[in-house]
Every structure is written in structure tokens, then in C-alpha cells.
Amino acid sequence: MKLLITGGAGFIGSNFLHYMRKAHPAYTLLNADALTYAGNLTNLEGIESVPDGSYRFVQGDIRDRAAMEPLFQAGVDAVINFAAESHVDRSIVQPDIFVTTNIVGTQTLLELARAYKVDKFVQISTDEVYGTLGAAGLFSETTPLSPNSPYSASKASADLLVRAYHETYGMNVNITRCSNNYGPYQFPEKLIPLMIAQALQDKPLPVYGDGLNVRDWLYVEDHCSAIDLVLHGGAPGEIYNIGGRNERTNLQVVATILEALGKPASLIRHVPDRLGHDRRYAIDADKIRKELGWQPQFPYERGIRATIEWYAGHAEWMERIATGTYRSMSAGGGSNDNKELEQT
């Protein structure tokens, strides 16, 4: 197969490329990424040097049809759309970028996939489109969409477009909605890498509100294996929720990081809560387990320890982001704009 993977220089996209290179070495992988602030080509070291031409990177924005069309003209069997603006805090400050990238960009890809008769289109979405849960219950694929941030609203809108292209044009599409991912290469504006980076430097760890917001955590490699199964076996038009049933409060996550690094709890600093902060997410992943046989391989305790060890052992990768030098290495240009970030 020849796969077009959009957003492949980001966190989940780059992990997916590493996964697919190992799982399907005969596949041709075409990676298109705009290299915005979260795009980092150093995430792909080891893949970009493949000598047989089975991997190719193209810098391009999914909103730009003229930039994307030549990739489709060359022929692709499937599109896996990771490309998105994904940081909730940024969406609150600058929602327009989320609307154009996540909605208009997805529609541009859909239209090209339809025009060039691509066999499969997989939209990588999020459990945040469902809104928030109370103390009990799980999100299923039939849970009504009820997004509470500009980010999640833009992703829900994109999902509806993907569904519409299936219903109207008969396109073979799937939508995956995953719980919070963690693991290597995650941009350190997100909770886990940010807390690790701060703790390693004995700096305060900013925790929103009371720290009792609950997320269902999934190691990124388990997410990649689920997407692989959906790509190859997902029924046309179906949605698949992906989650690990690893619910933890933010404070529990932070406490695990501090304990693993031998740092004191006194580093925790409670800061004003985010606007519209969802209280709890939790995924019912029975459908993908039963229909496609997916099983996560990384229990939370194993995954979080592996993640802490990865960041602790990749100080240079973290330093490149802190100083902004990764931007020039990724040919994206621009200055470091991460000083104000707190967490997700």
C-alpha cells in the first residue's frame, strides 16, 4: 500500500510512521506536514534516511489544495489524517486557526480523496468531541457530540464532514476517537511532557484548578496499533473509539512523575483553571476490541514509566524545543513561541 499520512511530523503522526515502518516495511509512506510550531522532523530520525524511497516527506498545508493535489495525482491507496491544531489553550486564544485547519483542511483532503478515488480515508479525531462526563459513565460511539472548546468543536465539525462524504458520495471512511495519548515525541505544552520537563529542572509544576480533572490515558503505540487495524479492517462509515480504561486525575499523573524522578510534591503549583475545562473523559472501546480484535499492550504503569524514562534520556530533544532550534532543523523557521504554555 501507499499511504498519505498528514501531520506526520507531530506527536501521534510521527509515532504512527515509526510503527508502520516496523509493522509493514513494504508499504510506501508519504508524510505531508505544514511544520507549524508542533511539527518536528527530528521526531522522524531513522525513517527519513530509508534508502529505498519508501518514505518521503513533503512540507505542505492541508488547507492548500494546490500543495496537496500533486500528492494525490501521484496515486495513494489511503489517507490517514492526523493533521490538526490540537492544543485547547491555544484554541481559546486563537480559534480561527483551529477552524481553518481542522475543518477546511479536512474538507480539502476529503475532496481530493473523492476526486482521485482514494480507497480509504481515516480521520483521526478525539474523545473531546463528546464533551464532558460526570463521575460515572463512558463515551461510546453513539454518544451525542457536545464539544466544549473551540478545538473540540472544530474536530466535531470535521468528523461530521467525513461522515457526510460517506453518506453523500459513498466514500470509504472511518473516524477514530481516542482518549488522551502519552509517550515519546509529545510536544511539551501537554501535561505529561511538561510536568516531566519542569520536574527535571526543579521548576514549579503548574496544575489547573484543583487537579482533579480525570482523563483516560493511552500509550501512543497502542493508539497506533488500533489505527492500523481500522485502516485495514474498519467497516465503511464506522466510528471506532480507542481508550485504555486508565482513568487518572491530573494530580495522580503528576504525583507518579514526581515519585519516579525523586522530586518533592512541593513543586506542585495550583494555577487558575482553564476556561470551559472538561471534568472527565472515559472511553468505551468495546467495539474496536470485539470487531477488530484490538488489545492495548501497555498498562498505564508500564507506559508512564517508559515515557518518563524516554524524556529523561532525551534532554537534547527537549532542549531543542525549549530554545526553538528544532524549528530551523525542521525547516519551519520562526521563533520559539512556547514560553507562555502551561498544560493541556
TrEMBL record:
Organism from which the protein derives: Paenibacillus sacheonensis
Name of the molecule in the record: dTDP-glucose 4,6-dehydratase
Gene3D superfamilies named among the record's database cross-references: NAD(P)-binding Rossmann-like Domain (3.40.50.720), UDP-galactose 4-epimerase, domain 1 (3.90.25.10)
GO BP annotation list: nucleotide-sugar metabolic process
Catalytic activity: dTDP-alpha-D-glucose = dTDP-4-dehydro-6-deoxy-alpha-D-glucose + H2O
Ranges for domain NAD(P)-binding: 4-306
Entries under InterPro entries matching the protein: dTDP_Gluc_deHydtase, NAD(P)-bd_dom, NAD(P)-bd_dom_sf
Record key words, sorted: Lyase, NAD
Cofactor: NAD(+)
Known EC number: 4.2.1.46
One Pfam family from the record: GDP_Man_Dehyd
UniProt record similarity statement: Belongs to the NAD(P)-dependent epimerase/dehydratase family. dTDP-glucose dehydratase subfamily.
Gene Ontology molecular function: dTDP-glucose 4,6-dehydratase activity
